[in-house]
Amino acid sequence: MISNLIKKYKNISVLMLLPVVLFACDSQTIYNESFDLPNETWAEDDTLETTFEVTDTLHYHNLWLNTRLTETYPFANIYFKVILKGPNNLSKNEIMNFDVADKAGKWLGKGTGDFHSYNFPIYNELSLKKRGKYTLKIVQYMRTESLQGIHDRGVKINLGREIF
């Protein structure tokens, strides 16, 4: 009798968790990876490089740089050099600037205490018209050899709205 009761509750537990697991998976995300930085330092010659496959050319793509800064980050903004290469000689090369603190020094990212998380939009609704492999390179561009106070960095790429 007790074993039947345990089996019954296990089945109910599985059924209750199934929607959580299904909805937690983001079917629109095609790449999402993050890397810790040794000594919370991003060296100027350390390139964050990601290769991803585009198979859906009927949707826009959104590319994000995700990072967590610590209280030791010394600036109110951050510059990145972003290079995107892809099929048919696609080459985009841009310098991007993002604020991380307001004029009073209050962090703009999510979180409190030692870590502040940021999701910087590198490209929003980018039309990638050719299938194939693309390479995204991101370099810190703050004119300092070692940028202190960056705990980790990563890239997230997801599908946006449909291209009409």
- Alpha-beta classification: mainly beta
* Model regions low in confidence, pLDDT < 50 over at least 5 residues: 9-25
> What is the first-to-last residue Cα distance?
60 Å
Q: What composes the largest sheet? A: 4 strands, antiparallel
Q: Please bin the fraction of helical residues.
A: 10-25%
Overall pLDDT score: 87
Any idea what the radius of gyration is?
Answer: 20 Å
What shape does the CA trace take? globular
Structural features:
about 160 residues, mainly beta, 4-stranded antiparallel sheet, 10 strands, about 55% strand, globular
Walk me through the topology.
Elements: H1 2-24, E1 29-36, E2 41-43, E3 48-54, E4 59-70, E5 77-86, E6 90-99, E7 115-126, E8 132-140, E9 146-148, E10 150-162
Walk me through this protein's architecture.
The protein has 164 residues and is mainly beta. Helices cover 14% and strands 53% of the residues. It has one helix and ten strands, in the order H-E-E-E-E-E-E-E-E-E-E. The strands form three sheets. The chain has a four-stranded antiparallel sheet with strand order 1-10-4-7, with no helix packed on it. Strands 3-8-5-6 form a four-stranded antiparallel sheet, with no helix packed on it. A two-stranded antiparallel sheet has the order 2-9. It is globular and about 45 Å long.
